[in-house]
Amino acid sequence: MIAWSDDILIGLDVIDQQHREIFSRVQKIIIINSQESAYKSASENLVFLMTYVKEHLSAEEKLMEESTYPRLAEHKELHARLLIAADRIYENIKTDGITPLNVLDIESLLMGWFKTHILTHDKDFAEYLKQ
Questions:
Q1: What tens digit of pLDDT does each residue of 20-33 get?
Q2: What contacts 69, CB < 8 A, 6 or more positions away?
Q3: Is this model's pTM higher than 0.85 or not?
Q4: From 3.40.50.2000, 1.20.120.50, 3.40.50.150, 1.10.1240.10, which CATH number describes the 10-130 domain?
Q5: How big is the chain by its Cα radius of gyration, in Å?
Q6: Rounded to whole angstroms, what are the CA distances from 15 to 43, 59, 104, 118?
């Protein structure tokens, strides 16, 4: 499990707050999954997480549209790929329930997203807005 780091901040308060919330929910799912009696809580956190990630990506894309960000199409494509992967995991969970493998998939997908997408693409967008 990776720990939150301010290195992940991109300098846009609303986006940074959403990133923190996503990170926090992934951490909760991982911790809850280690407790046998926590299935309902993990399920609730997962449903929230999936909804929140979609809302976050939509809000981020709206900011990009409003600012005429030149790499909007590329960024939207990256978001679409994330959602396809997240939906696949979510469908697996609906079929199989929350399993250690599904939690590992969530952690790998979203924490990998934090390390790559946010630190490169989202920071690039933040720099564009500062110009």
A1: 888 888 787 777 66
A2: 63, 75, 125, 128
A3: no
A4: 1.20.120.50
A5: 15
A6: 25, 8, 25, 10
Q: Where are the domains of the chain?
A: 10-130
- pLDDT tens per residue across span 46-86: 778 888 889 999 999 999 999 999 999 999 999 999 999 98
Nearest residue to 110 (alpha-carbon basis) of 38, 28, 13? 28
Secondary structure element (H or E) that encloses residue 61, with its range: helix 39-66
Helix axes 100-113, 39-66, angle to 10 degrees: 20
